[in-house]
């Protein structure tokens, strides 16, 4: 799903983006007038349903006869987990119509006109390449504050609030400036360097904990005709999944905070230079799979599962997404970024992990309480385990895997989180400034460098220019780490 959400699985080239916006521009006007026509002719279509009565069984006061509409992003996680949770909603509110469910890859094309026309659905999984920009939605006051959900009793234990059942960082990710919670990230993604344990065993190697060991292993693999690395060259904003925590490891998490805050010269930090030069060495020494700059996320993952390359930067959705091509004995595993050297500020094990799959309740939806109640159900242990079993990903519910048999990939994610302990970083650029992160830093910056078309020094200068321009751009809302 390509997104700011921490899940970034599909991409659009700059040309596609321009074409798409042109297309959206062309259709926006008729769609809107058509929608407003619908809205006015359908008496009271844009009015909220009456609130229901709050009770222990219905803590959010959902109207028990009101309709609920849910739209799910149909990407790496599919839609079945949501359909299963909606059945629980139908059981809880038998007098309401069956939940109206739909799934699409084209979140923005389909839903932006409905936002503009004042008739959005009640709950949206706002993800994928066509994710709506969350910073913009918050800035335009188009989202409902989810604090009532966070303060509601959790589904399994009424003595605990929903907010107290979430993994570290999930609630904060849904906040943009201060208190309100605008987004509920449902999946929990571990980012890092993914590899096949079997492939490493065949080379009589273990995961390289230092960069010297990484380069030595890539040299050994090259002699066997295997590339060290591949990545989605068409969507190189996957590279930060291992590169950003590498930068934090070298220079401390404050380097990433300065980058997120768009501070002047943040990209000129020595830690950024060291990390970029290390990655550029993979290119310079011929350790990147030939043809990588032309590959999509699916193509690069397929080359990797075929054993053509040892390492790929990715998020934990890769297990489900690459399942069709993954050999049974692959032993998919995630590693934290290698150490550059002994002077790194943070220990080996430092990793990027954060919420993925952002769910939002539109401010103008007819039944926002119903949307929040559906999320409360999804954050029950039963729904959470169902998601983990179906799609091979952790959820935002802390724990939530007790008694499950986990695949090697999922287990490695759990192990990596345990080893990281406090050293989990969560860069926010991709949530706060989607275009800067994807098209500029990712495609125009790091992508060009890794393809060998720009040096690290040129790339840093270019990216700093993009960041400075974003900092000065008054048309976008700016966010800061507090």
UniProtKB/TrEMBL annotation:
Keywords: Signal, Transport. The keyword Glycoprotein does not apply. Residues 40-59 are annotated as: Disordered. SUPFAM superfamilies: Periplasmic binding protein-like II (SSF53850). The keyword Signal applies. Pfam families: SBP_bac_8. Belongs to the bacterial solute-binding protein 1 family. This is N-acetylglucosamine/diacetylchitobiose ABC transporter substrate-binding protein. It comes from Streptomyces atroolivaceus.
């Amino acid at each position: 799903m390509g997104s700011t959400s921490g899940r970034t699985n599909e991409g659009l080239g700059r040309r596609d983006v321009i074409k798409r916006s042109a297309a959206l521009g062309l259709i926006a006007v008729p769609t809107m007038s058509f929608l407003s026509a619908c809205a006015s002719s359908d008496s009271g279509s844009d009015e909220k349903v009456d609130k229901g009565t709050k009770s222990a069984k219905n803590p959010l006061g959902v109207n028990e006869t009101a309709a609920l509409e849910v739209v799910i992003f149909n990407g790496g996680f599919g839609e079945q987990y949501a359909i299963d949770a909606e059945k629980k909603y139908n059981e809880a509110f038998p007098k309401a119509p069956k939940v109206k469910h739909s799934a699409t890859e084209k979140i923005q094309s389909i839903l932006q006109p409905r936002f503009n026309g004042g008739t959005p659905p009640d709950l949206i999984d706002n993800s994928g390449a066509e994710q709506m920009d969350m910073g913009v939605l918050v800035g335009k006051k188009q989202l409902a504050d989810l604090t009532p959900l966070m303060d509601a009793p959790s589904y399994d234990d009424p003595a605990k609030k929903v907010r107290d059942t979430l993994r570290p960082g999930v609630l904060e990710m849904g906040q943009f400036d201060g208190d309100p919670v605008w987004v509920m990230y449902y999946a929990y993604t571990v980012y890092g360097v993914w590899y096949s344990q079997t492939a490493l065993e065949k080379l009589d190697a273990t995961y390289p904990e230092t960069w010297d060991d990484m380069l030595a292993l890539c040299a050994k693999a090259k002699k066997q005709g295997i590339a060290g690395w591949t990545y989605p060259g068409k969507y190189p904003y996957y590279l930060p999944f291992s590169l950003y925590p590498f930068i934090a490891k070298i220079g401390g998490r404050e380097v990433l905070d300065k980058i997120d805050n768009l501070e002047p010269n943040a990209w000129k930090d020595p830690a950024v230079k060291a990390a970029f030069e290390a990655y550029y060495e993979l290119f310079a020494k011929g350790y990147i799979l030939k043809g990588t700059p032309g590959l999509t996320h699916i193509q690069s993952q397929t080359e990797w599962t075929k054993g053509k390359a040892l390492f790929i930067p990715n998020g934990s959705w890769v297990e489900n997404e690459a399942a069709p091509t993954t050999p049974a004995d692959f032993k998919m595993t995630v590693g934290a970024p290698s150490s550059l050297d002994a002077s790194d500020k943070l220990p080996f094990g430092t990793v990027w992990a954060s919420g993925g799959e952002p769910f939002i309740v539109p401010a103008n939806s007819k039944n926002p309480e119903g949307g929040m109640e559906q999320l409360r159900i999804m954050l029950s242990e039963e729904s959470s385990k169902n998601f983990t079993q179906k799609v091979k990903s952790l959820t935002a519910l802390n724990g939530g895997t007790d008694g499950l048999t986990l695949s090697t990939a999922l287990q490695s994610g759990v192990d990596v989180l345990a080893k990281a302990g406090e050293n989990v970083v969560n860069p926010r650029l991709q949530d706060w400034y989607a275009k800067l992160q994807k098209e500029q830093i990712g495609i125009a910056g790091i992508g060009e460098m890794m393809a060998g078309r720009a040096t690290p020094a040129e790339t840093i200068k270019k990216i700093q220019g993009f960041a400075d321009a974003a900092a000065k751009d008054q048309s976008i809302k700016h966010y800061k780490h507090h």
